[in-house]
Request: fold
Amino acid sequence: MDITLVEVAPRDGLQNESHPVTTADKIELIRRSVAAGLRRVEAVSFVNAARVPQMADAEAVLAGVPRDGEISYAGLVFNERGLDRALAAGVDEINVVVVATDTFSRRNQGCDTAEGIARWERLAARAAASGLWRTVTIAAAFGCPFEGEVAPAHVLDLIERVAAAGPDEIALADTIGVGTPDRVRRLVTGLIERAPDALPRCHFHNTRNTGYANAIAALDSGVRVLDASIGGIGGCPFAPAATGNIATEDLLYTLDRMGVDTGVDLGAVIDTAAWLGEVLESPVPALLGRAGRFPAAAVS
Reply:
């Protein structure tokens, strides 16, 4: 079984960090990710810099990243202006978020869920005409910080509605880390049934220590694309306590031990996480860098 990891530390990771990170260090994080073998990178977000100042230098970041034809760079886009910027900056993919609940959608995007779907439809049409890979992410698919439980039937209905615009990929996001494997299996199975033409993808947070179990449940249910963040950094600035993306290195350790091929060099990712902790002036949340690999690497 081969799977693809989407490295999201440069976007979803850094957007929630209070410590300022220079454009040069963002580019270096992406360069190191690519050197480790990651081939899809969610690099930037084209959003209002007043609301997410960590992403204010999106164009400068994309101007400095490695480009060899094999790497696909994604940008998060919320509106027409964001898509204009993304196209001008030369992204390969766009990711448009539709939030599963009205309350969170209004706080995150300034509109309700229905308008979020309408925005996605408009952006999807323009992006398709420009030849971009189109991902739509259903955020808070497993629970909302403001409205609480999100009914699976509601999420399945949203899947059908966003699928009508012909996405290349539909991602289910556990934005606040409340999902459990049983819910993951149910929603992923429903996603595959209701949107058979879209690639299924999942985005998990480990806020309540269920993220890795959820990732394996997603793989067992047919997902072949998983998001992860080097060092386990990140979260959503508009959701209280939405911390803890699953860490790329911790997930890789599990997958490597299971014999799952990702094409990513675990040692290089561990080294990058250590470097990132120095940049942020704080140890990263991931555990593998502390515990080490098993069996331990031979000393030459």
